Amino acid sequence: MAKDNPSKYPARMGQSWEEEETIKLLTSIQKKKSIEDIAAEHERTVGGINSYIRKLAVEYYFNDKRPIEEIEKFTGLRKEKIQEAIDKHTMTNNKSKRLPKILTETSDTTETLPTLSEVVTILKDIQHKLTVLLQKVE
Asked: Tens digit of pLDDT per residue, the chain (138 long)?
């Protein structure tokens, strides 16, 4: 987009970040520069800067095992924003896609989870029973 319409979009919008640029970004944060000024210096959007800072926070947390308090100092993000980014990353990368507890808790550890088609069948049955109940109430 930036290449097609340079007057509308910053020149480096969407391009990958180089190590030197990341260091410059973190230095600017330490100097308490505004996100708008940082975005202008890096020729990126404010959203792109914010997104990259959250990405760094997640990397520092998971890859470098840094405490949230330290990540706050590096990124300038508040604890709540760091935790939101961590939670979003965790949810996105959770392979089980958060099956309801009733489907994941079993009393017999040898019992297997239902297949997707079995879950769909159960849900259709529940939907049918609810429809019948609603008709009786009306």
From this structure: 555 555 688 999 999 999 999 999 999 999 999 999 999 999 999 999 999 999 999 999 999 999 999 999 999 999 999 999 999 988 877 654 555 555 445 445 555 677 788 788 888 888 888 888 888 777
Cα angle for residues 6, 9, 15 (degrees, 5° grid): 95
Rounded distance, CA 114 to CA 118, Å? Answer: 6
34: left (phi over 0), alpha (psi -120 to 50) or beta: beta
With 0.85 as the threshold, say if the pTM is over it. no
For residues 57 and 62, what is the distance between their CA atoms, to the nearest angstrom?
A: 9
